[in-house]
Amino acid sequence: CWTDEYCNYALMNFDFINSVIEKAANVLIVTCFNIPKGNILEHSKVSTMIIPPVRRVANYDGVPSNEKILPEIMEDLEKEMCADLLPGSVVLVCAGFAGKFLLKAAKDRGAVAIDFGSSVDHLLGLKTRNLELHTLFD
C-alpha cells in the first residue's frame, strides 16, 4: 500500500467538509491561519487552535508569529488541543511534520484525527501549493 503526499487534497471539497461538520460532535482545526468571516469553516461547531507557522507560509498576511517554534511548545499545544476533545470530535491537523504528534494525542482521547495538511490553505483561498502540477487533479 502506498499513498501520496497530497492525498489529503482528495478531502478538500465543500460537500465533504459540510458532512464532517454535520456529523461531528465538534471540529477543531489546528492551523496557523485565522478563519475569515463567511468561510465554510466559520461554523458554530468549528473552533480553531492557532499554532506557529512553518517557514513556507510565515510571511503571509495575518499569520501570527510566535517567539518559540513549534517543537518548543508541543506539550502546551497538546494540553490546549485536548481540553475540549471528546469521543465524536474531529480534529483537522494542518501543522506539517511537527503536528503529527497531535494526531495521536487526539486519537488517544477518542477523537477522529485527520492530517488535513495544506488543504485548509486552499479552503481559505490561499495558494500555498500548486495543485495544477499534481496528478490527483488530472
Describe the structure.
About 25% of the residues lie in helices and about 15% in strands. The chain is built from four helices and four strands. The chain has helices spanning about 15-25, 75-80, 100-110, 120-125; strands at about 25-30, 45-50, 90-95, 110-115. The chain has a four-stranded parallel beta sheet with strand order 2-1-3-4, with helices on one face. Helix 3 (about 100-110) links the parallel strand 3 (about 90-95) and strand 4 (about 110-115). Helix 2 (about 75-80) runs parallel beside helix 3 (about 100-110). The longest helix is centred in the N-terminal third of the chain and has 10 residues, at about 15-25.
Distance between the termini: 21 Å
Q: Quaternary arrangement of the chains shown?
A: single chain
Principal-axes geometry comes out as globular
Radius of gyration: 15 Å
Would you list the SSEs in sequence order as H and E? HEEHEHEH
Number of helices, counting only DSSP H or I runs of 4 residues or more = 4
Count of β-strands: 4
Helical fraction equals: 10-25%
Give the helix/strand class.
alpha/beta
Question: What can be said about the biggest beta sheet?
Answer: 4 strands, parallel
Strand order of the largest sheet: 2-1-3-4
> Strand share of the residues?
5-15%
